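ok trying this again, last paste got cut off
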Amino acid sequence: MGAQYYGADSENGDRIDDPSEDALFMMISDLDNSDNTFVVVQPDEDDPVWFVSVAVLDEGGYEIVRRDTTRNENEVTTSTSIHAVARDLTVWMAARNSGVH
């Protein structure tokens, strides 16, 4: 079963607990190429079984890494749309918490 609570942490120290799609959009929008290059979302557990990260690419756009050890998922994709990334992450994280395989 997935975690009931998770948090999004950015490189610059910002944190949002149980982020909504809009909150993820704002955090990703705040990323840059110097001192705030990534956001990581994972359960608030000692040994989280899943995480997702979004990192700024030097050539523009974002690299998205989704990993879930309980489902043997390890996917790396890229996107240039912050809206699409925030929506996709919200759907993916909801599946972790619902137990849907």
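PB: full thing came through this time. The CA atoms of residues 2 and 54 lie 20 Å apart.
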